[in-house]
Amino acid sequence: MTGKDTARKPDPSLRLRIVFGDVVMLGPGKAELLERIQQTGSIAAAGRSMAMSYKRAWMLVETMNAAFCEPLVASSRGGAKGGGAYLTDTGLAVLAQYRAMEAAMADAGAAQIQALQALLRDIPTGK
């Protein structure tokens, strides 16, 4: 084998962005935010876990909620028992459809990704 045959190529990744008109309805960041809201029960905590400001996380949620027929995220204000957030049934459905499209895209393009990866230059370990 030559050095080219043994060099480690970077693992490929695909990024799916769904755009209607000029508006990105859903992409990797928004999908991750939805998942983290589902995991944490909090828009603030989800944003923090992504190194995102509370304001930015809220803005993204508001954008998604306004774009779809029904809100994707429901929230309650803080108080004695604290606030919280959760994905609505529509939010769960949108996230599931997005992840299914990602998987279908990866499966459908696997051969082409492998062919492109084989054409990459050797990339030294590190950077």
TrEMBL record:
InterPro entries: Molybdate_resp_trans_reg, WH-like_DNA-bd_sf, WH_DNA-bd_sf. It comes from the Bacteria. PANTHER family: DNA-BINDING TRANSCRIPTIONAL DUAL REGULATOR MODE (PTHR30432:SF1), TRANSCRIPTIONAL REGULATOR MODE (PTHR30432). This is Molybdate transport system regulatory protein. It comes from Roseibaca calidilacus.
